[in-house]
Amino acid sequence: MFLREDAVLAILKSLKWSIAFIFAASIVFAPFAAAPAAAQITSPATWYVSNTGDDANTCLTTDAPCATINGAIGKAAAGDTVEVAVGTYTGSGNQVVLIDKDITLSGGWDETFTSQSGLSIIDGEAARRGISVDYNSRSGDPTVSVDHFDIRNGS
């Protein structure tokens, strides 16, 4: 069976308009498409730190905390909170904790981060500062809140 030339042209013309419509619709409605959930971090966010954690974790959930306070601060945005489980935190370099943005450090949390009844220890081991605040950061002078910490053995 053969199609007449005018029938073939009518089919092609119809397909051309269908493809053009689909393309136009994808351009118009693309901005309304949902972004992947993994890419969405609402701010202010809460980040979690525990001695049993790993800085390679997302640190956004209590079951995947960071191991170091600096690891969580590095992932946090200005205005976020870093909750730190009870334990002793040490570091390397000039300080155990370097704060370079507006942030709240909240220590003394239990391992499940449901109760805040103790203290988290920042230990400079007589070799480094416990906490340093970078007042010369790109964003100006940070506003910092620190609670439920015992900061000891700083140099």
Largest sheet: 4 strands, parallel
Low-confidence stretches: 17-30, 32-39
* Sequence of strands across the biggest β-sheet: 1-2-5-8
Give the percentage of residues in beta strands: 25-35%
Distance between the termini: 92 Å
What structural category arises from helix and sheet content? alpha/beta
Percent range for helical residues?
Answer: 10-25%
N to C succession of SSEs: HEHEEEEEEEE
Total number of beta strands:
9
Enumerate how many helices there are, as a single number: 2
What is the 3D form? globular
What is the average of the pLDDT values?
Answer: 82
Search tags:
155 residues, alpha/beta, four-stranded parallel beta sheet, 2 helices, globular
How is the secondary structure organized here?
Blueprint: H1 5-29, E1 46-49, H2 69-75, E2 80-85, E3 87-89, E4 95-99, E5 103-109, E6 120-123, E7 129-133, E8 144-147, E9 149-152
Parallel strand pairs: 1-2, 2-5, 3-6, 4-7, 5-8, 6-9
Give an overview of the whole structure:
- The termini are far apart.
- The chain is globular.
- The longest helix is centred in the N-terminal third of the chain and has 25 residues, at 5-29.
- It is an alpha/beta fold and 155 residues long.
- α2 links the parallel β1 and β2.
- A four-stranded parallel beta sheet has the order 1-2-5-8, covered by helices on one side.
- The protein has two helices and nine strands; from the N terminus they run αβαββββββββ.
